[in-house]
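sorry to bug you again but im stuck and you know this stuff better than me. what follows is a protein written twice so to speak, once as letters and once as C-alpha cells for the fold. mainly i need to know what kind of three dimensional shape the backbone takes. anything you notice is useful, everything is just below:
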Amino acid sequence: MTYRICFVCTGNICRSPMAESVFRARISEAGLDDLIEVDSAGTGGWHEGDGADPRTVSVLEEYGYDGTHTARQFQSSWFSRLDLVIALDAGHLKALRLLAPTPEDASKVRLLRSYDPAAGDDLDVPDPYYGGLDGFEECLEMVEAASEGLLAEVRERMEGQVA
C-alpha cells in the first residue's frame, strides 16, 4: 500500500516545493520510493502552473536536490487519498483544517516543524518570498531538520498499517 503525503504552503513556489524535494530525497535514500508518494500544493492558486521561485530552485540545486516543480492549489477532495498533509506554518494548518471535509481528514494535518525536536515552540517555517537568498537557505535548514523525524513517523505509521 502506498503512503501519500502532501506538503502545503501559501503559493506552492517556495516552502512546500522545497519540503517536497527534500523529503523525496530522504525516502529515496531510505529505499522507500515505491512505498511513499510525495507532492505539494498551495492554499491559494495564484501561482498555479508556474515553476518554483528561482531562489528555491537555486538553493535546492546547490544542495543537491531536484528543483523541478509545477505549482498547484490544494483541493479539499484530495484529503480522501492522502495519509498526511504537512503544513509549513500555523496559517496553513488552520486553513487546511477548515478545508477538511471530516474531523478525520482534519486530523491528517500536521506542522512540518513538529517533527523537529529542536524547534521548540516555534513551529512555523518563515516565508522567504519577500527576503533574500539567506531566507531560502534558512528554510532549507528547517525542512532538512524536520525531515528525519517525519520519515521516522511515516515508517512507524506504515508498519502499523501492515501489522
Summary: The longest strand covers residues 3-9.
